[in-house]
Write a structure and sequence with these properties.
The chain is α+β, with helices and mostly antiparallel strands. The chain is built from one helix and five strands; from the N terminus they run H-E-E-E-E-E. Strand 1 and strand 2 form a beta hairpin. It is rod-shaped and about 75 Å long.
């Protein structure tokens, strides 16, 4: 019986370490990925976005895997949804 107690005692620090990693690293990253995925699914025409390359653009049309964005008055390009970094929030001073 004493042998079983020492086995549990030797694994206890590993279990605690895994719990710390889960709550400090894994869980917040999963929440961030879920929020980004929901943001990508919620993109619509007229939304302003920032790409991973730092370009600020307006969505012209949404497609399955791509979106068409307007960079300026003359330039419309297709962008893979994976390269959308964030959605720009419109403030009162912008409108």
């Amino acid at each position: 019986m004493e042998q079983q107690g020492s086995v549990i005692g030797s694994f206890l620090p590993l279990i605690i370490l895994f719990a710390i990693f889960y709550f400090l690293i894994i869980r917040p990253q999963q929440k961030q990925q879920k929020a980004h995925r929901e943001m990508l699914e919620g993109l619509a025409k007229g939304d302003k976005i920032v790409t991973t390359g730092g370009l600020i653009a307006e969505i012209v049309k949404t497609e399955e895997d791509f979106i068409k964005i307007k960079l300026n008055e003359d330039t419309i390009v297709r962008l893979d949804r994976a390269y959308v970094a964030k959605k720009e929030e419109v403030t009162k001073s912008d409108a």
